[in-house]
Amino acid sequence: xxxxxxxxxxxxxxxxxxxxxxxxxxxxxxxxxxxxxxxxxxxxxxxxxxxxxxxxxxxxxxxxxxxxxxxxxxxxxxxxxxxxxxxxxxxxxxxxxxxxxxxxxxxxxxxxxxxxxxxxxxxxxxxxxxxxxxxxxxxxxxxxxxxxxxxxxxxxxxxxxxxxxxxxxxxxxxxxxxxxxxxxxxxxxxxxxxxxxxxxxxxxxxxxxxxxxxxxxxxxxxxxxxxxxxxxxxxxxxxxxxxxxxxxxxxxxxxxxxxxxxxxxxxxxxxxxxxxxxxxxxxxxxxxx
Length: 289
Known about the structure:
This is Cobalamin-binding protein. InterPro entries: ABC_Transporter_SBP, ABC_transptr_periplasmic_BD, Vit_B12_bind_prot. The structure is a single chain. By secondary structure, this protein is an alpha/beta fold. The chain has helices at about 1-20, 45-50, 85-90, 105-115, 125-140, 145-165, 190-195, 215-220, 235, 245-250, 270-289; strands spanning about 20-25, 30, 40, 60-65, 75-80, 95-100, 120, 170-180, 180-185, 200, 225-230, 255.
């Protein structure tokens, strides 16, 4: 009898410690009976964050346009930001479905909830959100140690950049993400945060949308020191070089930047932020000549 009670007590203790409780970014308390070892991720940034948290082996479904890390490209695709394959997701029998709070269609997420699938809302819109997300995913998957290492490495990388560029000359920056219509980054886009860390002032930081449309006249009026676009936007930037009165044009600071992860709010953004900081520093040097 004593052995039975001791065994029962051990089983109860094991069961109690095996459960997982994490508060998500919608303020919901999510409790799982055990760490999640079958995870569906419905946004590329969330998938990258799960891999960084040491939970990559547990990701059984992901979304279109997932590129990072490269291992994630082998995971079956079950949807995108606007449409998800409910039947396929149910068939995967996930322990948790991780969704992007502001990126996945609410109507689609509601269907998952009505089916009784556990849903975890995550939101990373600023650089400071990334490391905490890694830690939360590590707790969900029972990979806290690896998640903590990744989170600390990310925070240390940001701090190195911040300390390097904190006292550099501030530059007014226009970041062009599309030319027809002309679109830029507003306050809600993580690139805005990256610019600030690198010593750049987004000339459209007063706009709250992530990707607002603006007029050419508005850009000319704000007279940026630097005009940036993604690595494949060279031709789209060409027209700014004809506006000779622009500070960016006068100093040769109409630039394409090869930083494919810069818009990805996940640990993969760090190399992109590093490239951005170096690009702005080169622009400072040209202005100082």
